[in-house]
Design a protein that fits this description.
The protein has a single domain, classed as OB fold (Dihydrolipoamide Acetyltransferase, E2P) (Beta Barrel), CATH 2.40.50. By secondary structure, it is an all-beta fold. 31% of the residues are buried. A hairpin with a 2-residue loop joins strand 5 and strand 6. It is 0% helix and 45% strand.
Length: 89
């Protein structure tokens, strides 16, 4: 996975490590793994990416608080596309 990059505001960006479909929850009836205000650590699963019928758990790889969710559930994303902004703790 891609390490979280810091932008000019000091926020870290969690980026997609692959091309695939973004899923915010484990299944349609489950709550999202994280949302704005959620506290995350390096091993916190933030979403699932589906590529070629394989589901991959994506971890935060940083510690902090989710400030913004940048993609919609079910959205197709590109490699390196920003998924979340995180305020480092």
């Amino acid at each position: 996975a891609t390490p979280a990059a810091a932008d000019a505001s000091g926020l870290h960006t969690i980026e997609s490590p692959m091309v695939g479909t973004f899923f915010a929850a484990a299944n349609p009836d489950a709550p999202p793994f994280v949302s704005v205000g959620s506290t995350v650590g390096p091993d916190t699963v933030v979403c699932i990416m589906e590529a070629m019928k394989i589901f991959n758990e994506i971890k935060a790889e940083c510690s902090g608080t989710i400030q913004q969710v940048l993609v919609e559930n079910g959205e197709s994303v590109e490699f390196g596309q920003p998924l979340y902004l995180v305020q480092p703790s």
